[in-house]
Write a structure and sequence with these properties.
single chain, DNA polymerase, domain 1, globular
């Protein structure tokens, strides 16, 4: 079968674009060839319309939305532009397009479903979950009855339930939508995400794996699937997910970090003591300079040098500081005394700093070592998912973890009921509780 030709092949519907898009992403060389073909198309007339459709297929949504704006009289172009706008988070603009198309095609569930989905996103961004649930519920009540049993209708019913915190009802609705249309991307994502948070790992895994097979796979899906694989001990599969994200989206720092973790898990090597020292060092290096009493001159000089934390300061040498205007020996001595109190010095290499953690009364990580609140979070031996969440909250000690509530933790990405129960159980071993617990 000949490869799809964006310049001349018929494009009768948005569904045909979806089919061809999956084929284009099937092989690396076909995607590169397709992208070059799209680039060569002119911006005006029918070539411009096709170029806009091709940009959407290639995931270049800003360019797609701009090019297709001149072709909204063409229904395929308009619907594609609406989808590009949704991917860009511009739900208000997308909704106007989808509402026009749903009026033109009242018996088609896809335009109406897209309009209501955009309405929900718009209300969610502006007014929060309760307002979004109310707006979507009212709009669904006004929709014609044949719309409700469609995949779109069931998916949107699931969104209402999820926004109201009725997780099991939402999962049931998303499952029904999947039974009607097993390729509905947004439904599969909500199903996987919510199932994961509710502790239904098998259901989440099934939804994410289907999504990955519907090319192209989104970075968020691959990252979530990778985390799930790690929880299940499938580090090689997790690494493959993160590697795909890192190559496709080179600016995704989270994927690169997760990839290193997964590869480390594959090597089956873990130095708990070294990680504890690294965590304690990082905590000290993030300490703001403003936490210390300094002369006005020293403080002003450091601010002008963009030295904000102890970590910034340690990277400097004595000569670098002394060459700065108005920074003299007196200011230098102030700085050295501060660093010495933390077991650090100017120009110190990280490896040396890590091994200096436990030295003497001035070492990094003060506080009563017998107080469990001063213990490092590494001593909890949390799963990767739970550990990443508390680290993302900036917690390095058990005491810092207890300053957060259940709601705060459950609001973090990839942290669900299973992770919450794990964390609470580990804290209870040290006689500690989360904020707000009885």
């Amino acid at each position: 079968m000949a490869p799809f030709d964006i310049a001349s092949d018929p494009i009768p519907s948005f569904g045909s674009l979806l089919t061809e898009r999956a084929d284009v992403y099937g092989r690396k060389d076909s995607f590169q060839s397709f992208s070059r073909q799209v680039e060569r198309l002119e911006d005006g007339g029918d070539p411009g319309r096709r170029k806009g459709l091709g940009m959407w297929m290639a995931g270049r949504y800003e360019e797609a939305a701009a090019l297709l704006a001149a072709h909204e009289g063409d229904d395929v172009a308009a619907f594609t532009r609406g989808n590009a706008l949704m991917s860009l988070g511009r739900a208000g603009e997308a909704r106007a397009i989808f509402e026009r198309l749903s009026e033109k095609y009242p018996d088609e569930p896809r335009p109406r479903g897209a309009a209501l989905d955009a309405l929900c996103d718009e209300a969610l961004n502006k007014d929060g979950e309760e307002a979004a649930a109310d707006a979507l519920e009212q709009a669904l009540a006004a929709a014609p009855q044949p719309f409700h049993p469609s995949a779109e209708g069931r998916y949107l019913a699931g969104r209402v339930a999820e926004l109201r915190g009725e997780d099991e009802a939402a999962l049931e609705a998303y499952g029904q939508a999947r039974d009607v249309d097993g390729t509905h991307r947004r439904n599969l994502f909500r199903l996987g995400y919510l199932a994961e948070r509710a502790g239904h790992e098998d259901l989440a895994l099934e939804a994410y794996e289907v999504l990955v097979r519907i090319l192209p796979a989104d970075a968020s899906v691959l990252n979530n699937l990778g985390v799930l694989y790690e929880d299940l001990g499938r580090d090689q599969d997790a690494a493959a997910c993160y590697d795909m994200v890192a190559k496709t989206y080179p600016m995704d720092g989270r994927a690169r970090l997760y990839l290193r973790d997964a590869l480390a898990g594959m090597e089956m090597y873990y130095d708990e003591d070294l990680e504890r020292k690294e965590d304690r060092l990082n905590q000290i290096l993030r300490t703001p300079i403003t936490d210390f009493e300094l002369s006005v001159r020293a403080r002003n000089c450091l601010a002008k040098m963009d030295i904000v934390t102890l970590g910034d300061l340690v990277k400097k040498t004595e000569n670098e500081l002394l060459t700065y205007k108005n920074f003299g020996e007196t200011s230098l001595q102030e700085i050295k005394e501060i660093l010495t109190s933390k077991g650090l010095r100017l120009g110190m290499q990280r490896e040396e700093a890590v091994h200096a953690i436990d030295r003497g009364p001035g070492a990094v990580g003060g506080g009563d070592p017998n107080d469990p609140r001063n213990k490092s979070i590494t001593e909890l031996k949390l799963s990767i998912r739970a550990r990443r969440t508390v680290e993302n909250l900036g917690c390095l000690t058990l005491g810092e973890v207890t300053q957060h509530s259940e709601d705060e933790l459950l609001g973090m990405p990839n942290f669900g009921v299973t992770s919450l129960l794990e964390l609470k159980g580990k804290l209870s071993e040290y006689g500690l509780k989360l904020k707000g617990e009885d």
